[in-house]
Specification:
There is one protein chain. It contains 12 helices and 17 strands. Helix content is 33%, strand content 22%. Strand 13 and strand 14 form a beta hairpin. The strands form 3 sheets. A 10-stranded mixed β-sheet has the order 5-4-6-7-8-9-10-16-3-17. A 5-stranded antiparallel β-sheet has the order 12-11-15-14-13. A two-stranded antiparallel ribbon has the order 1-2. The protein starts with a strand and ends with a strand. The chain is α/β, with parallel strands linked by helices.
Length: 378
């Protein structure tokens, strides 16, 4: 694969001619829409039909049950695991089914493609947000913890899931050790049934990093307890924060380098965002709210607005600005250049693989580039 950055005056035809590439292939691989307008600074994936895979990695991608069936079908060949988002639970350890639809069809589709369906467990409260009081109630009660693990074991057998992903966030510092013990017990129960257990980790850069997102996660203990972990290396730029890259590579690298001091590389998956944000400016904390958009959608927006896409050399992420209805907007997203940087990091540190949050939007160039760099474990 080759990455070409669009220059002023370029067209799909002129690029294809200069690179001796197939026009239709460029259009298809990059999901260009008629009349195939381009944005200056846009990164295009050019398929040379010669694979450069270096080694096999595990790839997972979270999905809600309301994912478009066509998107799921196109994505599954590139996935080792499909974490279905998500099951909840009560304070007493009773399981709650996904709030967004039935999961049986997703399990069947995953198995059809040789992809492992994974049950994602999250502590969502009635408001749909992470509830650390719910976590506190379960991890500090032997009875409730036992009940939840038993219910998980039964459901895994009934549904055909092949692993559990524990995605607990905003764990209170006082529950840090109890949560680690909870993961140990879940993992032991799952192994006895032939399943594996993973845990999602907030992106820490030191053991004592302050903040509710970090203090309840003990990297070393959780790395020892679980079969593998996902570093949630995204959301530096987020809905209510100031405009910036969602997953700046300099910050992602810091998290990986710290994680490697606590957890073996062969247990670590790198988190990759499959989305971007559009912020109205000026940014006012507590007032400004960014809109989420897909990576293909972001490029089409730049084309529509006649915006030039720039590339931050430190964050290794693309961004652009535009004006709509007299309001200035700033957009940060992922393209094949920023993804290439993340794939390079996986290879540099010999990580287990990667996990996408999330796969609801189809981004063909991402999967082609991933497939070019790595063999996908099945």
């Amino acid at each position: 694969m080759e990455i070409y950055v669009v220059k002023p005056g370029d067209s799909v035809d002129s690029i294809a001619q200069a690179l001796e590439a197939d026009v239709e292939q460029i259009i298809y691989d990059n999901q260009l829409v008629y009349p195939y307008g381009l944005a200056v600074g846009q990164a295009l994936l050019i398929n040379r039909y010669a694979r450069n895979a270096v080694r096999a990695v595990s790839v997972s991608g979270y999905a809600y049950p309301f994912i478009n069936p066509g998107v799921l079908e196109q994505t599954l060949p590139y996935l080792s695991e499909l974490p279905v988002f998500s099951y909840g639970f009560t304070r007493e350890g009773e399981l709650l089914p996904p709030a967004y639809g039935e999961d049986d069809w997703m399990i069947a589709e995953a198995l059809r493609f040789g992809t492992q369906p994974i049950l994602t467990l999250t502590p969502f409260g009635p408001d749909g947000n992470f509830n650390n009081q719910l976590i506190h109630a379960v991890v500090n009660s032997r009875e409730y913890m036992r009940r939840l693990i038993e219910n998980l074991s039964v459901l895994m057998e009934e549904k055909g899931y092949q692993g559990v992903d524990i995605d607990f966030e905003y764990i209170m510092a006082e529950d840090r050790d109890a949560f680690s013990e909870f993961v140990r017990q879940v993992a032991a129960a799952m192994r006895a049934l032939g399943y594996h257990t993973s845990v999602a980790l907030a992106p820490k850069t030191s053991a004592g990093q302050p903040g509710l997102l970090y203090e309840g996660k003990d990297y070393r203990a959780l790395g020892e307890a679980a079969d593998h972990v996902l570093l949630m290396t995204y959301e530096w730029g987020y809905t209510y924060g100031p405009p910036m890259a969602v997953a700046p590579i300099n910050q992602v690298r810091r998290v990986v380098e710290y994680a490697l001091t606590e957890i073996p590389a062969e247990k670590i998956d790198l988190g990759i965002p499959n989305y971007g944000y559009d912020w109205p400016l000026p940014f006012e904390r507590g007032i400004t709210k960014a809109v989420t958009l897909g990576n293909v959608q972001a490029v089409r927006l730049a084309v529509e607005q006649g915006a030039e896409i720039k590339f931050d050399s430190v964050a290794e992420s693309p961004y652009f600005t535009y004006v709509s209805k007299d309001i200035l907007h700033e957009v940060w997203f992922e393209d094949v250049r920023s993804l290439q940087a993340k794939f390079d990091l996986i290879q540099e540190y010999r990580l287990r693989g990667c996990g996408y949050w999330q796969i609801m939007k189809w981004f063909r160039a991402n999967w082609l580039l991933l497939h070019d760099r790595f063999y996908i474990l099945k």
